[in-house]
Amino acid sequence: MTVAVPPPDPARALAEDFAARAAGYDRDGAFPHANLAALRAAGLLALTVPLRLGGGGAGLARAAALVGTIGAGEPATALVLAMTLLQHGLIHRDGSPWPRAISDAVGRDAAARGALINALRVEPELGTPARGGLPATIARRDGEGWRVSGRKIYATGAPGLAYGVVFVRTDEPEVRTGSMLVPFGAPGIRIEETWDHLGLRASGSHDVVFEDVAVPGSHAVDLRPPAGWQVPDPLQQAWSCALLAALYDGVARAAQSWLVAFLRERRPGSLGAPLASLPRVHEAVGENERLLAVNARLIAGLAAETDAGRVPAPREAGFVKVTVSENAIELVQRAAELCGNAALSRKNPLERHLRDVLCARIHWPQGDAVRSAAGRAALGL
């Protein structure tokens, strides 16, 4: 009898390769151009671009699986990947406010050369626009087009971006806010290398400065009165929360894998046996397995409902992101406690996993916002 052998998983092979370079990227804070080139060559940067444009045609479930796999290898690379997959998952959907010609052009560019795209929203004074307020980045009328000036911070993937979806306000008498598609090859764009954070150090989340950048009129892809942004977009929330949850779950899975190997190999002289023989270790590792199983169910459920057209309410997507993130953090912290000093040694990857996973609490939606919104709704406020 012939037994079918499953085809090799290119994403898993790439993640293993990325993991071998992850410590170097973390130490240097260098942008992972080589990793992204490998993803580009495998066609994975266009995974969520529609088939009709030459992309992979994938939905959220496949995108989340890919981000989780790459996140276990090198999570900063996975974050850059996630942002591009997210944008394509949104701009090509039915009912997208983007002009079809523009979204198609961006999709074809991703399929042809792996062009990266990300939304640039956060500003020094504003913080994240999801908490309210008008951006300081201004779009001024210039004939049929616009001129954009301002500064965006935490612009993930900045050194490799082909496009920025820049959140602006207009200089019109009736102010509008929203997104403009800005090609990063346009004159007047400057990247200031400011990113020097605790975790995800290779993500290239630098400041991007726009100085009177010319933008075609057709690239004002989604401008609305400010009140039009007050209600979260359920699809955007679902994609963002699922991909971020998958990323940090990937970090936790990498930590658990390293922990299991360490506990099997470590034989303290006082014990005369591997740490893996201790009952308390069994319970701790088993609790980590429980958290990973719960995470997998939550991410898969959110992605499957979204792909089936049953997009959950934004607060439910937020619950998934917060729960998976907190489970991942708890797991990595428990792993560090079990390992002692070895967990904090820079020669071991666990200390890097610990720093990386803590970034989950900073990514929107943050826990306080999710809980407060749910509390207000429950109280009828």
UniProtKB/TrEMBL annotation:
Keyword annotations: FAD, Flavoprotein, Oxidoreductase
Residue span, Acyl-CoA dehydrogenase/oxidase N-terminal domain: 12-97
Enzyme Commission number(s) from the entry: 1.3.99.-
Domain Acyl-CoA oxidase/dehydrogenase middle as annotated: residue spans: 123-213
Domain Acyl-CoA dehydrogenase/oxidase C-terminal: 244-362
Keyword Oxidoreductase included in the entry's annotation: yes
GO molecular function, a single term: oxidoreductase activity, acting on the CH-CH group of donors
Enzyme class at the top of the EC tree: oxidoreductase
Keyword Oxidoreductase: yes
InterPro entries (UniProt xref): Acyl-CoA_Oxase/DH_mid-dom, Acyl-CoA_Oxase/DH_mid-dom_sf, AcylCo_DH-like_C, AcylCo_DH/oxidase_C, AcylCoA_DH/ox_N, AcylCoA_DH/ox_N_sf, AcylCoA_DH/oxidase_NM_dom_sf, Mito_Isobutyryl-CoADH
Requisite cofactors: FAD
Family statement: Belongs to the acyl-CoA dehydrogenase family.
PANTHER family associated with the record: ISOBUTYRYL-COA DEHYDROGENASE, ISOBUTYRYL-COA DEHYDROGENASE, MITOCHONDRIAL
Name the record gives this protein: Acyl-CoA dehydrogenase YdbM
Species of the source: Methylobacterium symbioticum
